Amino acid sequence: MGIHTADAIVLRRYPYRETSAIVTCLTDRYGKLKGLVKGLHVQPSRHRSAMEPLTINRIVFYDTQSSQLHLISQCDLLASLSELQRDLDTVRGAAFCVDLADAVVPLEEPQPAVYQLLRDTLERLALGAPEPSTLRTHFIVRLLRLAGFQPQLDQCTGCSAPLYGEAAWSARQGGLLCLRCLHEDPQAEPAPSALLDALAALSQAEQPVSPEEPLLQLITQRLDEFLHWRLDRPLKTMAA
Fold first, then answer.
1. How far is 88 from 100, CA to CA, in rounded Å?
2. pLDDT (tens digit per residue) in 183-209
3. Do 223 and 111 sit in the same domain of this protein?
4. Is the same domain home to 199 and 94?
5. CA distances (Å), 12 to each of 1, 9, 86, 99, 127, in order?
6. Are residues 200 and 97 part of one domain?
7. Residues near 112 by Cβ (< 8 Å), separated by ≥ 6?
8. For a pLDDT cut of 90, what percent of the chain falls above it?
9. Which domain holds residue 211?
10. Pick from 41, 60, 79: which residue ends a domain?
11. Which of 5, 20, 147, 207 is placed for a possible disulfide with 16 were both Cys, Cβ 3.0 to 4.6 Å?
12. Are residues 145 and 113 in the same domain?
């Protein structure tokens, strides 16, 4: 049984019996993990954090090896990010980012770039990002790319042929269709080059990029369609 220390963003927390809690965290070194925090509600001197969702903590946990539920023996609050609670739109935006990360990141697969992306996004929201919609779009595109979950844009999702000319966007199929495969999704819509160029640029940009408003609206619509069709479970925060 190994003991590890990691910085962790709390994604979810569930009560366990009367005194403890089960948390899902995204860590900087070990990826997403689930942990049991015993006595969380009755030993405040031992646990210097309530492990609330949307907070950043430093945790010490035991790797049980026989289970995906680890024992968290210590948790210290690093950043409460209380500014995320300033208004409903801000907390909804932050909750959406956490919810999406939880949905696409597998358990116990180290992804430090994903951790840093989520942390940077939450901190920007806490500071009052001037364009939260731009921040949300950048987060979605970067997260999907880093997690290997991005739409397929370089070849047809129907016949796998490389795409060189006109193509159609099919959220249901998970990306683009060539004109020969439109029967796969009769509701597929034309994918303008500006949309594809913007998605490519966003996926490579480490800092948020702000497309023009009409293009940003189109990107947001297409991404939300993609998430609706491709996620295993619906996100309650999608309406945010």
1. 18
2. 999 999 999 999 999 999 999 998 888
3. yes
4. yes
5. 25, 9, 20, 9, 22
6. yes
7. 28, 29
8. 75
9. 89-151+188-230
10. 79
11. 20
12. yes
pLDDT band at residue 238 using 50, 70 and 90 as cut-offs: confident
Number of structural domains found in the chain: 2
Residue 167, domain member (yes or no): no
Q: 178 lies in a domain?
A: no
Residue 41's pLDDT is 64
How far is the C-alpha of 222 from the C-alpha of 194, rounded, in Å? 13
57: domain CATH number is 2.40.50.140
Q: Is the pLDDT at 182 greater than 80, yes or no?
A: yes
Q: Are residues 27 and 128 in the same domain?
A: no
**Average pLDDT score over residue span 159-168:** 91
The set of residues, in sequence order, having a beta carbon less than 8 Å from that of 209 and lying 6+ positions away, is 134, 138, 201, 202
Residue 166 lies in a domain: no
Q: Name the residue among 41, 40, 34, 38 with its Cα closest to residue 64.
A: 34
Do the strands 31-37 and 69-79 form a parallel or antiparallel pair, or are they unpaired? Answer: parallel
Alpha-carbon span 75 to 22, nearest angstrom: 13
CATH number at residue 132: 1.20.1440.120
Note whether 128 and 135 are within 8 A (CB): no
Residue of 176, 94, 172 whose CA lies nearest to 132: 94
**With contact defined as beta carbons under 8 Å apart, do 77 and 48 qualify?**
yes
At position 52, the amino acid (one-letter code) is E
Q: 116 and 95, same structural domain? A: yes
- Tracing tokens 């293009």 back to the chain, one arrives at 215
Tokens 């800092």 belong to 207
CA atoms within 13 A on the CB side of 51: 33
Q: Please tell me the pTM assigned to this model.
A: 0.92
